[in-house]
Specification:
The protein is mainly β. The chain contains three helices and 18 strands. The termini are far apart.
Amino acid sequence: MKPVRSRIGIVIGMCALLSLLGSNTVSAAEDAESIWTTLGFKFSGSADVAYTHNFNNPNTNLNQLRIFDSQANSFVPHMMVIGVERPAMAGSAMDRLGFRARIGFGADARYSRARTNYQPGTDNNELDVQELYAEYIVPVGNGLKIQAGEMYPLTGFEVVNSYENPNFSRSFTFGLAQPFAVTGIRFIYPFTSWATLSMGVNNGWDNIEDDNRSKTFEYLVALTPHEKFGVSIYGTYGSEQSNGNAIDGQAGVGVCVNGATRCDPSAKRTVVGAVITIKPTDKDTIVLEPYYGNEGNASEQSKSHNARWNAFLAYYTHDFNDQQQPHAFSYRMRGEIFEDAGGARTCIGGTNVNGGADTCATFPGAVGFAPLDGAFNTATGRGTRQTLWEGTFTFQYKPAPSLITRAEFRYDKSGQNVFLYGQRPTNHQETLAFHVIYLF
């Protein structure tokens, strides 16, 4: 009986020790969490996967001219995002100091990484630093916030991460004609509770390292005179074309091909737009976004060699119940028209332009306007002049506040045969997507 008693004693002792260690571990974790909370650190993240079906069944398995949801008839682990931040706040010198860092992993990072040229010319690296900046509030007047590093741009309504947008798919305008990120310095000053001015200087669109010898100026005027109405006017101005040292296939030769688009580092790009938000009821939100862009010496489609692109987008969201409660249900709709008058933004190829792949189909009869394969021609600077339309209809259901599910139908239309129906070029495509997002 003695050995049995000793074994029982050993087991009881081990259980007591494990219990003590466990309580210490929990206590340490709680202490660590308490310290992080006291310091003002905030952790967040998301993970989203989706299946997208293209009713045209393109033989390339690509949804033409899409960004992030370009994989047709496929299950895709789109993105896992991990972020940590300490927002700067008015108060002591320590309170006024903050930062933000967000990293994305997954298939979507191939495109955002290529666009921000962490590694130009490749799109198979599934890690992307989305944001990495420090901020400080200077105690002047109402508080001047200064941010420096890589940040989301001031232009546009949509952003990279799908859960921050009303729809699963991104618009043509965002994917083809707006930056994903900028690297530089930004100044933000709230004149009143309803008027804020943001201004900054950066390396240019999507440039972690500058690709020319000039900088781009950005601005945003945000006005919210009423809780049911707001307007943000944004714009950028600067030289965006490469001097041949970084992107668009020119790195191999080191210089720009004469006449090639985006290879005149002295040419200026001007963009202006607005995001108008209207809330007619507590459950309904309307967002309108007019958008205009122009760039010198960027197109062979016109005698002036200027490229012009413009768009108009309309978003409508109806919340059937409280979106912060379980079983929240809402309907979202987006309509868009995007005109690429100079052929500089669509069907021009290049990993840093439309997300890592030239997905335009062949369209016969386009000789004189673009190569027959729909790709950008560096010798002539010609792209595909066209007008794009799309209508997107999204139903969102949240079984829990941290879980988002979406079903989305989208119809795309073009003035050119840039889509595929099997192997045959066509001017339309329809997709149906099912999307799941977990927030943590």
